[in-house]
Design goal:
14 strands, homodimer, N-(1-d-carboxylethyl)-l-norvaline Dehydrogenase, domain 2, Thiol Ester Dehydrase, Chain A, six-stranded antiparallel sheet, Rossmann fold, globular
């Protein structure tokens, strides 16, 4: 992630600006934030809490040390000593122009400037800036810390290098930058979103459906496809083997049917506003915005992980971000050794989808915990991507689990790991899983691993670099007592 | 699933009609299908294969015995001796009216008729029918066997009872029926979809983005939210604590911005058709429609499962469908006993998302297999929902796994299960996992389970009904040799 600056400046700390703060901070970048609203710090704190919670579920890899958040008193201060200034002020052209002019006058000429505007033209936004060539639109989507898309749109005076520098920056914090081919109002996403939104308003206005029913039509139907393939590739499938042109020719005439009222916008009378607000309250069913945000984030994380297993769309973005995180994982140091005690290399929070119908963690997830603890030990002894890439690896051949207590969603657990024995081809490990801060084990795992030559598909001797680290670990732990539950057999 | 008829008649076997056939057949309903296209049987077969593959991943529960598929020579034959006739002919009013008139004249007056039309008014479709009061629109979405939504729209002469009967029927095959509050062209979904589609065509027409870029804007951005919350609830969150009315008042003015070209439709000139087809070919990158369908289905299944773990939207529909399947699971009979040998109660296909970066099944998934095999044994000895509901259950306290071979996506595996011992409070089990049709074990699992009173949270004696079945099983298996790997301890 060499593209990452050490520090960014944010202008505006609302839903979008606060979301940017969370994304940068959790990716290890310091944030200087200017927002005249006295409520902004409270607001950003809440978003940051949401983001921490979501990222703990999104990846099992350790995040980099969180960046520091500083509130500053002026746009100028936010622009000094940073690599990027991201403006997320309310959608008023004059306000944004004023902020960008002030901040750009204070910033060095190399600082990239980007606006989160959802539709204002970059050529207008950059008009009063110092060094307007380093300005682009970078339009993200709520929640900014989870949704990967950021639309890049260059203005008349934007240099191509600015767009590519901004894209690299956004990619480094796990986003999917997409550059428009030319400048238009509303960019791509908001033109699509507004089209849907206007039609949705008419359907409610005309009492064809309530707001909850319109949402259900989306989320039980086409919305499920949109997350995967968008609209063109989805329709290609409707055309069958004949392809896209056949689909267009076949269904093209329906485009001219008078199904839509899109040319008009329903008038926002008091009665209509009351209707939408009343139906929306009923739909929310007493859930607060904070509760709804967490529900949304949990489902977003689950969908992102589902798409990652399939190698589809936004799942690819998450996978690329995780590869970047992996590079940041420091080789465990002697500091993680608790004297000569068991190694504390692994800790994680129990995600909500690990729970069975009883409310406990599902039986099989204990092996997930133990397997991840074993992976942490393997990284520790030098089985890294280079070692695996060269064909060396350890495979588990035998496992003995003792289930000693129940775990619940949100519990934070850790493993204490002991090497019970080793030889040229084998590792004999023992993990004790406890809740962080407690001593009572909730599970233990005993494991035999065999070193393999993955290409040849058979057991093979461990190679020197790893061998030395295993030897050093065995020496360090030689004085530890044998765990009570080691060597158990199952019997009545 | 008492609402399910034994047999349905389908008029039309294209992408939609074939999808209906697959959904009904896999839910155990016989299908009579009329389609004059000689290619229809091949087409339906392909969709049925897709659906079988998807359902094997969607649930670990056994499906009911597949219904039988019969092609019939006339619409009249499709309407005789069935509970529902579903019409999915091409979108031409006269054709649909003619098919519905012919079929309804042959059908008993109680047969429900439903049309898959994506936008034609039910009042026009029912005009020439016998007993038009039993007609409704039931508009599904591709792929019909996976997407839950079906829009119900009554015509002027439709009886309310028809709509509720159709809704119950669709619910019984795992769908989410949603009834419009009054009749309009295009219903709800296609008005929303067409709005998005027209705007998308303009963006491509004007070279703002390619078709792949428009799709990426959807699937890396708002499409991820749409699967969860639709459009109104999503925007409620943008309004923050102030609520929906505040959001509308704040963002309402943007509705009037000239961002859209929706009033017009781009002319489908040869040049424009060529452009869309060329870009779509590039996007598909050589993948055939069949390949794209499978990618889409795999991702849909993964998203449906993700939403089920969160209790969100379409995940709730899948959960309700599974509860219905559970009621259909027959109590295992003596027939599943292979003489006095180990019990063959459990078999499943390895889904693609069980695979690690090496292409093998992830280590922890072996405990999923063994846990599911244990669950099958528990159902067999009478630990059913009534027993669990009354507070009795078995918890696993110790597990010993031997990993003896690799498994890959698509492998079908089975467990052979042996009771090694039992007493009032304990069960000692041994599973051997093999590929179906092979003898070499890929894994074995040895397990100690303790009977608990879940409410009291402590071990308790097994109750009589289950005790008797355990006793009978122990007697039947008394002569079996002890498995070679039973009682192992891990040691170097």
């Amino acid at each position: 992630m060499s593209e990452l600056p050490l520090r960014v400046g944010l202008l505006g700390g609302g839903v979008i600006g606060g979301g940017w703060a969370a994304r940068f901070l959790l990716n290890g970048v310091d944030v200087k934030l200017y927002d005249p609203d006295p409520e902004a710090p409270r607001h950003v704190d809440r978003l940051l809490d949401n983001a921490r919670r979501a990222y703990a579920k999104l990846t099992v890899l350790p995040l980099p040390p969180e960046g520091s958040l500083t509130f500053v008193a002026s746009p100028e201060e936010a622009a000094v000593d940073v690599g990027l200034v991201q403006e997320s002020a309310p959608e008023r052209l004059e306000l944004k122009q004023r902020l960008l002019a002030a901040a750009s006058a204070a910033a060095g000429p190399d600082v990239v400037f980007s606006s989160s505007t959802s539709g204002l033209r970059p050529s207008l936004l950059q008009a009063q800036m110092a060094h307007p060539e380093r300005f682009t639109v970078g339009h993200p989507f709520n929640p900014v810390y989870l949704l990967p898309l950021v639309e890049l749109c260059a203005g008349e005076r934007t240099s191509p290098e600015t767009v590519s520098r901004a894209a690299a920056l956004y990619r480094a914090v796990g986003m999917h930058p997409l550059a428009l081919r030319h400048e238009i109002d509303g960019f791509i996403a908001d033109r699509l979103l507004e089209a849907l939104w206007r039609e949705a308003l008419w359907l409610v206005h005309d009492d064809v459906a309530t707001v909850a029913e319109v949402d259900d039509v989306v989320r039980y139907g086409a919305g499920l496809r949109w997350a995967i393939m968008g609209t063109f590739l989805t329709y290609r499938l409707a055309g069958g083997e004949a392809g896209m042109r056949a689909f267009m020719e076949h269904f093209g005439p329906a485009l001219a049917l008078p199904w839509t009222k899109l040319v008009d916008v329903p008038e926002l009378t008091t009665e209509f506003l009351d209707k939408v607000a009343r139906q929306s309250d009923a739909q929310a069913g007493g859930r607060t915005v904070a509760e709804l945000e967490r529900e949304r984030d949990d489902s977003l994380v689950a969908i992102l992980q589902a798409l990652r297993t399939q190698g589809t769309g936004a799942g690819l973005t998450v996978a690329a971000w995780e590869r970047g995180l992996l590079d940041l994982v420091p080789a465990p140091s002697a500091a993680s050794l608790d004297g000569d005690g068991p190694l504390a290399l692994y800790s994680r929070e129990i995600p909500p989808d690990w729970i069975d119908y009883n409310g406990h963690v599902t039986e099989s997830r204990y092996l997930d915990l133990l397997g991840e603890a074993t992976d942490a030990l393997l990284r520790y002894i030098g089985v890294d991507s280079a070692y695996v890439g060269s064909g060396g690896s350890y495979y588990t051949v035998e496992t003995h689990i003792s289930h000693l207590g129940q775990l619940y969603a949100g519990d934070r657990v850790q493993a204490a790991t002991q090497l019970l024995g080793w030889d040229d081809k084998r590792l004999h490990l023992f993990h004790v899983i406890t809740r962080v801060g407690e001593d009572t084990p909730v599970a233990t795992g005993e494991h035999m691993l065999v070193h393999v030559d993955a290409a040849a598909g058979r057991a093979s001797p461990v190679r020197d670099g790893v061998r030395w680290r295993v030897d050093a670990l065995a020496t360090a732990q030689a004085g530890l007592p044998r765990p009570k539950r080691a060597g158990r057999r199952i019997t009545l």
